[in-house]
Amino acid sequence: MHSPEDRLAESVGLAAAIELEVVDGLLVPVGDPRPSTLFGSGKVEELGAVVEAHEIGLVIIDHAVSPIQQRNLERAWNTKVLDRTGLILEIFGRRARTREGRLQVELAHLNYQKSRLVRSWTHLERQRGGFGFLGGPGETQIETDRRLIQERIDKIRTELDVVVRTRDLHRRGRQRVPYPVVAIVGYTNAGKSTLFNRITGAGVLAMDQVFATLDPTMREVRLPGGRRIILSDTVGFISDLPTTLVAAFRATLEEVISADVVLHVRDISHAETAAQRADVEGVLAELGVGEGADNQRILEVWNKIDRVDDRDRLDSLARRQEVPPVMVSAATGEGIDLLLAELDKRLGAADAVVRLVVPAAAGQLLNWLHENTEVLSRSAEETGELRLEVRIAAAKRPRLDGQLKRAGLGVSAG
Fold it and tell me: What is the pTM for the complete model shown?
């Protein structure tokens, strides 16, 4: 469980993610939540005085706030109020870049707004900007209507169905290749994108802030043993991630559901790393990942070890894990070779070792073998034939047999 201090620091980080200037951050104990205002009348007046003194234009409450509570607090403080869900939706609206990501965010936003229509206003028509609660340039503010919102929701779902079908086609195409998929997941700001960039050499946005990555990114990677994989970087998880967002991004997270290996990246230097782990495992459980035998697909990657002073204690913690984690620093590159070797080992558990005699004229077959298998040994005969020993993934074995038939060598044995 996260400490109140950590939740406050995280909230400040969320606000900073959309360039809000944080005037003050307060811990406010709420022993008896009031249905009308959440806080007691005395606390409402006290906070109102702070809002007025600093001329604060927005108050963020790191808690679920009902529509009635939001409206009453806005009237009492004469300022805009956002709860945790509203703030995360605002960040997602700013971060989404792909058409699918923007549709998913808008769908989550509209479902959230449906419960907040009583004498309230929202922004459904914009010339520019995201799906905001904070307002922005170029927007048209209109009074919302349940029928209009539902019509828009239905339209978005239809558009998303098309996007999801296209994604499924791409996924089936990759399965025909077939390259195994390795998905990176983890708490937001755990260093997932930095790790992705370190392994792939890509230029994915990697910043020290929450939700720097929203839309999934994929790259082909060749492991040291020659095996090719598809590495997928995904949106970061967070404590109390709104259910509407988990549902909206299910299509994106299907890359995690269908992945051959899931790398759970943890910021092992963070004081709340255990609580963050529990949050990520909770979201994975919602997706049906990590339950029972499926847990074997998950490999923990303890990142940011360069920020840990007591390495002996870290080693001791790692030895207690049922499945040993891989310790890395995505920033410095330490441990990356060990991680890639472990991936090779896991993905190669069902590999077969095949011995072949390849005629000198079978250049196309030889090229295919070097592209799709790990060549363990190679020797030339006086006749010009090559004797090869190769390691091949079980999924590619039928393709090897097809290549051998086309070369007139018959089906391989071994």
Answer: 0.72
